[in-house]
Design a protein that fits this description.
By secondary structure, the chain is mainly beta. It has one domain: Jelly Rolls (Sandwich). The protein is built from no helices and ten strands. The chain is elongated, with a radius of gyration of 16 Å. The relative contact order is 0.43.
Length: 122
């Protein structure tokens, strides 16, 4: 596995856009680390997507503390229908494959605040 640490600093309006390095692999987890006196304000909003395709990796509003997520995407059969564990059952999920960089967009983070995102990739 590989880990990419992406520090993100908000502007005077509490917003930010940052990018991870480009990588190829499946996303195992994404961790937001809130640390120190200059950390994002409570209630920060995240949107993390693949930069080129816009595929969603993690979207969450009103985050107050460090958090880790294990994002997964729905899978489909060759006809485009949702793959299910059983007829009418739970959808089959899998790790999100990326050959891209991730775009991290923040809102409501507080003026000139800092945080970091750790992206763990298989």
């Amino acid at each position: 596995m590989r880990r990419f640490k992406v520090p993100v600093t908000t502007d005077g309006s509490g917003n930010a856009t940052a990018y991870s390095p480009r990588f190829a692999g499946k996303i195992h987890s994404v961790q937001y680390v809130k640390d120190g006196a200059n950390a994002y304000a409570d209630g920060v909003d995240f949107t993390i997507t693949a930069a080129e395709t816009g595929e969603n990796v993690w979207t969450e509003s009103n985050v107050n503390a460090s958090a880790v997520r294990y994002p997964r995407a729905s899978t489909h059969n060759q006809a485009g229908a949702a793959a299910l564990f059983a007829a009418g059952g739970t959808g089959v999920l899998d790790k999100i494959a990326v050959v891209d960089k991730l775009k991290i967009v923040l809102a409501q983070g507080g003026a000139n605040k800092v945080g970091a995102f750790h992206i763990l990739v298989d």
